[in-house]
Design a protein that fits this description.
membrane; transmembrane; transmembrane helix; endopeptidase fold (from Nostoc punctiforme); alpha+beta; 2 domains
């Protein structure tokens, strides 16, 4: 029988990447993916306040269209925590800045061009409206909410990511379906007594990356271990 621990760890890593928004580089690429030239996307079908959604291999990135080829979106970024130079901060966020931002739990709601926001991916418009039905706010209200939030903010994989940002702006409540999927994956791993090692690693990672209190987290980590030993 195959060892379930590597499989569980691989699944967890996939879900972590989903929430972190790491941009997958194309095969053979040694650096960042080139950003499409201005005009690559037809913005004539976008309206101010639209929720833009960019599906990728392992995750979905979200933003609010502000008009005039501008998109407000939340991105993990270490630079706002170490410099006030707006010119540096406004440059396209690299993977290194993004990962360090996740570790430091620092992000910014920034305004970028549609090209920089989509990063070469296809764009869905208001695709989440079907899930909220009558909760959709007015387009102008959604855009104004996004504009008010522009600037440095705290970041959390589970509690404050790009999906929380757009659902608050367009539907009035911060929700993340990607977070829900991630939590279900974690529960599945912990429930599997054969994946004790993966459960311990998940708990330790939550302390380091998510800032959870060790006093409340450690007992939860080792419950599967004790159950496994007892069995």
């Amino acid at each position: 029988m195959k060892n379930p621990v590597p499989q569980a760890a691989s699944l967890l890593l996939e879900k972590l990447m989903l929430l972190v928004h790491i941009r997958p580089l194309p095969a053979g690429s040694g650096g960042e993916t080139p950003t499409p030239a201005p005009g690559y996307y037809d913005t004539s079908c976008f309206k101010r306040g639209d929720l833009l959604e960019v599906p990728r291999t392992l995750f979905i990135h979200f933003g609010i269209y502000l008009g005039e080829n501008r998109v407000a979106h939340l991105m993990p970024d270490i630079l706002p925590a170490i410099t006030g130079d707006r010119r540096q901060i406004q440059q396209v966020v690299t993977n290194k800045r993004l990962i360090l931002g996740v570790i430091a739990r620092t992000a910014s709601v920034r305004v970028d061009t549609v090209e920089d926001f989509a990063y070469g991916g296809s764009i869905l418009v208001n695709h989440m409206d079907r899930l909220f039905e009558d909760q959709v706010l007015g387009s102008e209200e959604a855009a104004r909410r996004a504009e008010k939030l522009v600037g440095t903010t705290a970041y959390s994989l589970l509690w404050n990511n790009c999906e929380h940002f757009v659902t608050y702006c367009r539907y009035g409540a911060p929700v993340s379906f990607q977070t829900d999927k991630f939590c279900e994956t974690v529960k599945m791993i912990i429930r599997d007594q054969r994946s004790v090692l993966a459960s311990v690693l998940v708990g330790l990672a939550s302390i380091v990356c998510l800032g959870l209190a060790p006093s409340t987290t450690l007992p939860t980590i080792f419950i599967p271990f004790f159950l496994w030993m007892a069995g």
